[in-house]
């Protein structure tokens, strides 16, 4: 039976970066309805104690789920995902999908055995990063590169279309290593959801071609799998209402923030969406 509403997905981040995950979701499931929530009043999360962060997330998302009645929540923030997924799942009583740096696929795909991870200092200091390396990349040389300014650079790149190639090159330069035998870093993990938003610029400053690992498409596939019937109902509902469901057609997208960033989110989405293709 066709459901009474389209699949409704709440996408949550501490700020701007989760738009890269929203892009992947929208490409995969354009007929779903999305609520994007940025907790920018408490950004950046890396400065918060873990207990304070977890308690605040549970309280905020419980209230938002009561308000919006989503079918599923996506925590599109690496820091929040590494700390709060288990208590969020227990508190919300619905599917919660998190995001973690793509260390596992990077290790599996590297030909040189040399991979790098770009991430915020807050993500770098969490135990999960080191557990991922131990579990999935122990046979590789893993270079952890903290990037204190790359998230801010990514926002500028999206909102203003500008970037400083020298500053960007300095920020990520340590990710590119070559040993005496000629082995080079061949895969770089984008360990913050901001970073894929400026992939075009990253490619330009990279000293040699690498494969950039963005986990957002895998998150989107996981969401589609978990939604199951709700996603099929979304497609059926849109087709019934509009006839042909073209790739350019999508459900609704609403933006909210706990601070004053709603306007920036809408501006950024307007600039990112033409590249959906």
Could you please describe the fold and organization of this structure?
With 277 residues, the protein is an alpha/beta fold. It has helices at 19-28, 50-68, 78-92, 103-109, 121-124, 127-136, 150-160, 165-172, 199-205, 216-227, 229-242, 262-272, and strands at residues 8-13, 33-38, 72-75, 96-97, 114-119, 141-146, 187-190, 211-213, 253-257. It has a 5-stranded parallel beta sheet with strand order 4-3-1-2-9. The two termini are 31 Å apart. The model is unreliable at 240-248 (pLDDT under 50).
**Beta-strand percentage range:** 15-25%
Class from helix and strand fractions: alpha/beta
Q: What is the count of β-strands?
A: 9
Q: CATH first level of the largest domain: which class? A: Alpha Beta
Q: Biggest β-sheet, characterized?
A: 5 strands, parallel
| Spatial order of the strands forming the largest sheet | 4-3-1-2-9
Quickly count the domains.
2
Question: Would you give the CATH topology of the largest domain?
Answer: Rossmann fold
Tell me the number of helical segments per DSSP (H or I, 4 or more residues long): 12
CATH architectural name of the largest domain: 3-Layer(aba) Sandwich
| Low-pLDDT ranges | 240-248
Percent helix: 40-55%
Radius of gyration: 19 Å
The N- and C-terminal alpha carbons lie at a distance of: 31 Å
Q: What order do the helices and strands follow?
A: EHEHEHEHEHHEHHEHEHHEH
**Morphology:** globular
């Amino acid at each position: 039976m066709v459901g009474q509403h389209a699949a409704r997905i709440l996408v949550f981040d501490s700020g701007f970066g989760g738009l890269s995950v929203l892009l992947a979701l929208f490409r995969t499931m354009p007929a779903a309805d999305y609520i994007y929530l940025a907790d920018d009043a408490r950004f950046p999360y890396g400065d918060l104690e873990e207990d304070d962060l977890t308690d605040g997330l549970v309280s905020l998302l419980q209230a938002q789920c009561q308000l919006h009645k989503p079918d599923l929540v996506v925590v599109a923030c690496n820091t929040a995902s590494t700390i709060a997924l288990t208590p969020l799942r227990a508190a919300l009583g619905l599917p919660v999908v998190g995001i973690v740096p793509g260390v596992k696929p990077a290790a599996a795909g590297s030909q040189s055995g040399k991979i790098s991870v770009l991430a915020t200092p807050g993500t770098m200091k969490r135990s999960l990063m080191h557990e991922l390396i131990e579990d999935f990349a122990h046979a590789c040389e893993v270079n952890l590169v903290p990037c204190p300014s790359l998230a801010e650079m990514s926002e500028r790149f999206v909102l203003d279309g500008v970037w400083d190639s020298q500053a960007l090159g300095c920020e990520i330069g340590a990710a590119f290593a070559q040993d005496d035998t000629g082995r080079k870093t061949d895969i770089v993990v984008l360990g913050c959801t901001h970073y894929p938003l400026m992939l075009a610029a990253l490619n330009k400053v990279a000293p040699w071609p690498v494969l950039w690992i963005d986990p957002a498409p895998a998150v989107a596939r996981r969401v589609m799998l978990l939604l199951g019937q709700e996603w099929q109902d979304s497609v059926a509902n849109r087709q019934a209402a509009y006839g042909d469901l073209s790739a350019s057609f999508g459900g609704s997208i609403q933006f909210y923030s706990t601070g004053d960033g709603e306007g920036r989110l809408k501006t950024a989405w307007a600039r990112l969406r033409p590249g959906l293709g």
